[in-house]
Amino acid sequence: MLEDFDELTLAEIAAGATSSAAAIQRVRALHRPVEHGGRTICVECSGWADGSTDNPPTAHPCATIQALDSQETT
Ligand SMILES: [Zn+2]
To answer: pLDDT tens digits for 20-71?
Structure first.
């Protein structure tokens, strides 16, 4: 019984780690850099689409990417 439990727990931990990494990749894909007006800005934070922004241009790496980077290096 104890062996079965340990294997199940390890599998759940592994699955959780995989989905966390995938979630981070999805966030990074959203908050990707793009050249706009001679600057590198965040697509998601700036609302960039088709060469214009819906929001004030936000420099890349934005706060979201910086938070991910600081989490990974700590
Ligand atoms: Zn962003």
So the answer is: 889 999 999 999 999 999 999 999 999 999 999 999 999 999 999 999 998 6
Measured between alpha carbons, how far is 74 from 60 in angstroms, rounded to an integer?
21
Give the distance (Å) from ligand 1 centre to CA of residue 10: 34
- Going from the Cα of 5 to the center of ligand 1, the distance in angstroms, rounded, reads 41
Distance 23 CA to ligand 1 centre (A): 15
Domain count, the chain: 1
Residues forming beta bridges with residue 35, ordered by sequence position: 40
Range of the domain at 7: 2-73
